Amino acid sequence: MFAPRPDRTGRGARRQAAPAARVEVFVDDVALRVPEGASAAAAVLLAGAALIRETPASGAPRLPYCLMGICFDCLAEIDGVANRQACLVQVVPGMRIATQRGARVAFAG
Ligand code: FES
Q: What keywords is this UniProt entry annotated with (predicted)?
């Protein structure tokens, strides 16, 4: 977790990590390349979106907050499925993340 501090000889200096591969996803139909393994919530934040959902009661805008599955402010429509916690979903190539407005609509089977 922590990188060692380099000593006076330069030993222990941090090595440059290879850049992560990137995958293309779409946030509200805008293409974006994000690091492989990132969450859909991270993609939303990297896209600079103003919101990812509106609250059902007041329509207040929300963006991912806790990034660990607690606050539910990241609920989004991902690949056509509403109410998914974007912070718990890993991006895959071609993923479509869309703003969720209002309450989820349930479909009777
Ligand atoms: S950002 Fe809090 S639950 Fe996803």
A: Oxidoreductase
